[in-house]
Design goal:
This protein is an alpha+beta fold. The protein is 50% helix and 8% strand. The chain has 18 helices and 9 strands. The strands form 3 sheets. Strands 1-2-7-4 form a 4-stranded mixed sheet. Strands 3-9-8 form a 3-stranded antiparallel sheet. It is globular.
Amino acid sequence: MWLFLLALTVSLGFLWIYEHFLQRYRFWAKLEVPYPVPSFPVGNVGDTLKPTIHFAYIILRLYRELKHHGDYVGIYFFRDPVLLVLSPEFARTVLVKDFNCFVDRGVYSNERDDPLSANLFFMEGTRWRQLRAKLTPTFTSGKLKAMFHTIVDVGTRLDQYLADRCTGTVRLDMKELLARFMTDVIGSCAFGIECNSLENPNSQFRVMGKRMINLPKLKALKVFFAMMFRRPARALGVRFNDKDVSDFFFTVVRDTIRYREVNGIRRNDFMQLLIDMMKKESNEADEGLTFEEIAAQAFVFFFAGFETSATTMACALHLLAKHPETQAKGRQCVRDVLSKHNGQLSYDAIMQMEYVEWIINETLRLYPPVATLHRITTQPYRLPNGKLLPQGVGVIVPNLAFQHDPDHFPEPFAFRPERFESKPSFSYLPFGEGPRICIGMRFGLLQTRLGLAMLLQHYRFGVPTGEANQRLKIDPINLIHGPAGEVWLEVERIS
């Protein structure tokens, strides 16, 4: 008898869930928005359960199938409706024109259990606006110039590291090497700490960087479902960062602040700018930063800064290795500019290397580290068809899909930096756009341009034998859209 009751209970529960999903799947029909027929229980994103495909390519497939509908279309993430943007013009509307209706990213965070998630990338609403206003002045041209020589110092160590090893043509995993280089850059600029990851690949900062980016499959699935069910996930205490990673960064920030205060030390780095904004211990209602806020911003600066720039540089060198004529143009650009600056890698010289900038832009078009932009309606929004989209609905701008669309970029898989002689607008969105554009964009481009210029000046890169026609395989699990495994290149010192 009890088996019958159990079976009946399970069946009734399943029927209730099935009916609930069917009700949810009527959402877009009621708003008269075109949509593909969803499948129970995965909606239109069943491929997310496959460990062999990156999320951006699931969205790319939907974009290609549905772009004929016009500016937007409705899709379902399991049970939840999501508005998929299909045109650069409507992307401009979401990201800029009607930004006040799409302020938040809608990503999962849990400040109570995971204080480092209270950072600018995850924050929402008024708190995001206030923090953005505080941090924006830290990325002015003057502040970047002050940090420039710190980056050059790390770049010089990279050059020496390669020079010691390139007695002839050597085969190196440039993805790993550049990740270590960028770890040292960010460690120095964000924390004022010599990480020494170039010489010691097992340094604590490098180990923690790998932990943040390369999620185990089970944790990646947990984070994905936390994104889908944010309130239950917060109630269950689901964390984005493991506790030991969080403890490491809090300790580093606390020790850095204490050391500078005790010894009266000031540095031209991101950490000093944050310390200067720290809330004073007084009864005055100032607008400084708390210690927890400083730690969270330093964390996201490290998290977002080292991997995205390292990935971009590795992809750029891979593309240049496959296109030696373009590589030669980039090298000539570096040498021509340096000849006008007495051979010195100054801030102004780097900013004048236009062709190097085009190489980076074209690399970001083909391999954007952030391949989909996410927003959520923060107030009801009236769609162009007159229907009201309620608050709390997710929105995706498929920037990878735009950037690989031949309607926007002819021969989209050809590597042609010259196409950026005139920069496109909202069909090219590697950093987002509008008020929520990546705040560290200028710093990221600066360190990438400097690193690429230093490498092109002294080294020639080639593709290992038999790999000339191979495209980079994309890691399906990594949060960043980037290469899976190593990026092996042949490296030769030329001057």
